Amino acid sequence: MNIKPIKTKKDYETALKKIDELFEAKPNTPNGDLLDVLTTLVESYEQKHFNIAPPDPIEAIKFRMEQLGLKQTDIAEVIGGKNRASEILNKKRELTAKMMRDLHHKYSIPAESLLA
Fold first, then answer.
1. Which residues 6+ apart lie within 8 Å of 116 measured at CB?
2. Assuming Cys at both sites, which of 6, 22, 79, 91 could form a disulfide with 35, CB separation 3.0 to 4.6 Å?
3. Which pTM was predicted?
4. pLDDT single digits (tens) 16-35
5. 8: left (phi over 0), alpha (psi -120 to 50) or beta
6. Cα–Cα distance between 23 and 104 in angstroms, integer?
7. Per-residue pLDDT tens for 72-83?
């Protein structure tokens, strides 16, 4: 395969097809190196053309709550009380920088998601 930048949808589809063929290639072999280069090119193309926006901050909090089995009362201590937690989760009040920082540190919610 002739390696070149991925500029078009056809180039992208061709690279994906070749990646499928090489998927089981062992590292540090010619095919493994080709797979590595192609995946890098595909990732670059996808970032430019299929960029995914971070989730809504409140949805990120709700998702993490679900993952950890938390209730609204659990995050109330971090956000500043039951009423404040209710207002935040119902999108009636904005998150403050301190709330975002505390949620990030306590529950490992990605800061990028909270800042969106």
1. 53, 54, 55, 56, 57, 60
2. 22
3. 0.58
4. 999 999 999 999 999 999 99
5. beta
6. 36
7. 999 999 999 999
